[in-house]
Automatic annotation (TrEMBL):
Region entry Disordered, spans: 31-63
Biased composition (Basic and acidic residues): 31-46
Root EC class: ligase
Record GO biological process: modified amino acid biosynthetic process
Protein name: Putative glutamate--cysteine ligase 2
């Protein structure tokens, strides 16, 4: 059974629904409770480059709530999980603990991938974050996006790179399933995931060609760092990458999901993709040959319309109804889902998302009803915590 872990970035908002730079204060509270890491502690760890301590399962030991680039964000991380029930429990627990810390300083947390309300992002203090703003200018200064990263265990770099080569064509479907950022600076962008558009401003972000071997993967990472454009290996923002710290593949294409169950669905599908790709590699099945340019277009299209229009079918490279492409993904990983015991939960999760829509759908429905971006945020706070 492959293990899975999830990292989520959450927006810190005041009771009226406006993002507020209170994450540092909330994290001070969490640190006193043994649940979080202060801004200063996090910056020192980032600067040192030292790997964090781990527990006996290989999970990060200690705090699970940490700072992010902006003071309007808190990041959470689950423990290493073996089942989707455990993933769900961890996400609910740490969303609740993040919210409890925020509440003590007069705020809440919302699983929103961008702010529906116009906001001036405040960069978190610390040498690394300040250097990012200095080097990347407006890209770093104005970005306020929240994503979800899923880690799945792999048996070394050979298997990990083989997985990366085989899952790349399916990643846009994951973007479509988690779209949760239709608004930017108080305006409807016309995108279901505008976060995915903003994120691709970073010079190292986006899809990759087939690597073919760990040596070629690591050479590319080294070449990028050698340009002195990205600050370090942590800023190699591939859509999916080998973790520099854990023996995992890390999939990074998704908006933070508004509802816990949608994040659990994402985790199940990513684990299914990783296991399916590893089986194909061991059986000698070659990686799909779709051009990187087409994968990039597929990702753009997924961010544009989410599940409300056509997606690019990875099998043909042609447009097809979103529901059909999602069904193709489930069928592609079905054997892995059956073997992990995840099939029933994933199928129910897919049916729920296709029936009610993603977080982007809920946000637009609330805005259509109220005309108030702040009301969208307040509705998101309730949905974040299962209400």
């Amino acid at each position: 059974m492959r293990t899975v872990g999830v990292e989520e970035e959450l927006l810190v908002v005041d009771p009226a629904g406006v993002p507020v730079p209170l994450a540092p204060e909330a994290l001070e509270v969490a640190a006193r409770r043994g649940e979080g890491e202060t801004v200063g502690e996090h910056d020192r760890a980032e600067q040192s480059g030292a790997a964090p301590e781990t527990d006996t399962a290989g999970a990060p030991a200690g705090p699970r709530l940490v700072p992010e680039l902006k003071e309007q964000q808190i990041e959470l991380g689950t423990r290493v999980c073996t089942g989707l029930d455990e993933v769900a429990a961890e996400l609910r627990h740490w969303r609740s603990r993040a919210d409890a810390a925020a509440t003590t300083v007069g705020a809440r947390v919302a699983a929103l991938a961008s702010s529906p309300v116009a906001v001036e992002p405040a960069t978190t203090q610390g040498e690394r974050y300040e250097q990012m703003v200095e080097v990347f200018g407006l890209t770093a200064a104005e970005v306020l996006t929240c994503g979800c990263h899923v880690h799945v265990s792999v048996d070394g770099d050979d298997e990990g790179v083989a997985v990366l080569d085989r899952i790349r064509v399916w990643l846009p479907v994951l973007t479509a399933l988690t779209t949760n950022s239709p608004f930017w600076s108080g305006r409807d962008t016309g995108y279901a995931s505008f976060r995915s558009q903003v994120w691709n401003r970073w010079p190292s972000a986006g899809p990759n060609a087939v690597f073919g071997s760990p040596a070629r993967y690591h050479r590319l990472v080294a070449d990028l760092v050698a340009t002195e454009t990205v600050l370090d290996e942590g800023m190699v923002y591939f859509d999916a990458r080998l973790s520099a710290t854990w023996p995992t593949v890390e999939v990074r294409v998704s908006d933070v999901a508004l509802r816990v169950e949608d994040a659990v669905l994402l985790a199940g599908l990513v684990r299914g993709l990783v296991e399916t790709a590893a089986r194909e590699w061991r059986a000698g099945v070659p990686a799909p040959e779709m051009r990187t340019e087409v994968v990039r277009v597929a990702g753009w299209r997924a961010g544009r319309s989410g599940l409300t229009g056509d997606l690019i079918d990875p099998r043909s490279g042609q447009p097809a109804p979103a529901a059909a492409v999602v069904a193709a993904l489930v069928e592609h990983v079905r054997a892995a889902l059956d073997d992990s015991g995840d099939a029933e939960r994933v199928e129910a999760g897919v049916a729920a998302v296709l029936g009610r829509g993603t977080g982007a759908s809920l946000q637009r429905a609330v805005f259509d009803e109220t005309g108030d971006p702040a009301a969208v945020v307040r509705a998101a706070v309730a949905a974040t915590h299962g209400r």
